[in-house]
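Quick check before the chapter quiz. The format below is the same one you will see on the exam, so make sure you can read both the input and the output lines.
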Amino acid sequence: MDSQEFRDIELRIEQLHGALKRQEKELESWRHKSARLPNWIRNGGVALFLALFAQSMTAVWWASEITNTQKNMESDVKINTEYRVSSTERYNDIMIELTRIQVTLEQQKHIEHNIKD
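Here is the expected output.
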């Protein structure tokens, strides 16, 4: 090969190298452009994430409140039910005693009435 052919090859290599450098610069430019988000999008995303987190924590707190309220109501109902059951038993005992007293008083009246006659 003569020197002219070498120069042509060298010139082509330099042209290809220049084209490759330009493509690398363009590719790098695209990488920077695509990787950088506008501030408002990034800030909006962070705000949205914080809002979702806060909403999740609020939901957990409300669920806890509802559970505690249900447990307290269950406890109150249990106490009231026990009282009502014992109240019925106590009422029956009182009525039996009143009936005994009434019978005793009637017997006493009857005896007193018989004594007078």
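If your answer matched, good. Residues 54 and 60 are 10 Å apart (CA to CA).
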